[in-house]
Specification:
Elements lengths: L1 E9 L12 E8 L1 H6 L5 E9 L8 E6 L1 H4 L11 E6 L4 E2 L7 E2 L1
Antiparallel strand pairs: 1-2, 1-4, 2-3, 4-5, 6-7
Length: 103
């Protein structure tokens, strides 16, 4: 599971029938440097994440990748590699040699 910041959404004109009702988000992965900066910069590569939780743009989420990303569609099959698994309220991050910060 990784953290990411929602940067936008993807609108499809045609999709797989198994994905009916699924939103797709543009998510920027959060790096340790991004957490330490405490400014929601993210800092990682952007990717497309399937979603059913409807986070707002700029909100931090946690997402899973690989086979775990397709598990919410079980027993069916869905061409999904990443899935928004939770909405993040706060993060308590302790960078080495610094006081704790709440995100």
């Amino acid at each position: 599971m990784r953290l990411g910041i929602v940067r936008g959404k993807v609108v499809l004109s045609l999709s797989d029938p198994g994905l009916m009702g699924t939103r797709f988000l543009i998510v920027e992965a959060v790096t340790a440097r991004g957490l330490a900066a405490h400014d929601r910069t993210g800092g990682g590569k952007q990717l497309i994440v399937a979603d059913h939780l409807a986070p707002a743009e700029g909100q931090m989420i946690a997402f899973v990748e690989g086979r775990e990303g397709a598990n919410p569609y079980w027993p069916g099959r869905a061409p999904v590699d990443a899935y928004c698994s939770l909405l993040v309220d706060t993060v308590d991050y302790h960078p080495p040699g610094r006081k704790s910060q709440e995100f």
